[in-house]
Fold:
Amino acid sequence: MQRTDAYLREPLELIRSTIKEAVRNNATDIHWEPLFENNDILLALRFRIDGVLKDIAKLDKKQVNFEAVINALKIMAGMDTTKKRKEQDGRAKFDADGIALDLRFSSMPLILGEKIVIRLINKEQFSRKLEDLGITAEGVKSLAPLITKKEGFILIVGPTGAGKSTTLYAILNSIYSRNKNICTIEDPVECMISGFNQIQIEHEYGMTFVSGLRAIMRQDPDVIALGEVRDAETARTAFQVALAGSLIFSTMHAKDCVNAIIRLLEMGVEPYFISTGLTGVVSVRLVRLLCRVCKGEGCMHCANSGFKKRIGVFEIMQVTDKVRNLILGRAPQDVLRKAALEAGMQPFHDSAYKMVTLGLTTKEEADKLFTLDEV
Structure:
């Protein structure tokens, strides 16, 4: 973004123009943060584009009133402007030149002042089809028998920002029917979808993942989507729901499919629940695509990065009888992975490096998926 007269105008106009600029650049997050540089405190503005955080502008107090901008952001988010030393969350809706956005705000007190991060959620991302996410034809074929079952527990796993929620909604969209009662329980509700019965977690009113699951079970559900498995109690309840005859999906932070099973065991979930209830695991990560215009050299179209947009790389695991027995015996991760590969699981490496051979990304980008400890 180039500095224009917008930076000298009213805070709200600055915020609006910044959000629209972020959307034009396909940014997922906007960071407003105090920055100490050259013996002065600046207001730094950064966008996360294709997974990479980039400096956009550094504004001094002659250009903008810092406190006024932060207060305007908090008012937009429905936050309390008087609470400056306490973290807060908020949300708002925004129309960016015809694109409907849900904005998620997070404020955090720093030693230099308050920092606010805005997550930009484009509703269109939750209406995508499975084939739009990057899942290969082989992947769709192996996933189909899992998501069309009448019962069972399927986990979608990956690091933060890897596309777990987008994948979950794509699966729900693919099996949607007015003949099914599809219920979700989320914290927060990512996007309102027509035809889904969506529940918002409200801890202050006693609505938790566990209580929500129990309430849904009295609502004659066919399919349940649980926002995230965060603890053993939630996991156990989800497995009980699956064993009672419902198809349930959830997300969880894990490096890959087999690691998800290890994480559940480490949480304290009994092997019996996992081996009998878990039917499959889908692991997803995102890889940057080469810019179609410059093919990696850098141009105006890709902000000189050489890359434009990201696509999912998937690993899909079906829990076979052999894997179930290994889970019951608490087999180590390498043994579980060998059994999963023998059963037909296509590893991340194959999918990622296939994209390299097709010229969609670079080997360096693919290597990043396996060299960073992301979870």
Q: What stands out?
A: Residues 1-8 have pLDDT under 50 and may be disordered. The two ends are 32 Å apart (CA to CA). The CA atoms of residues 39 and 322 lie 63 Å apart.
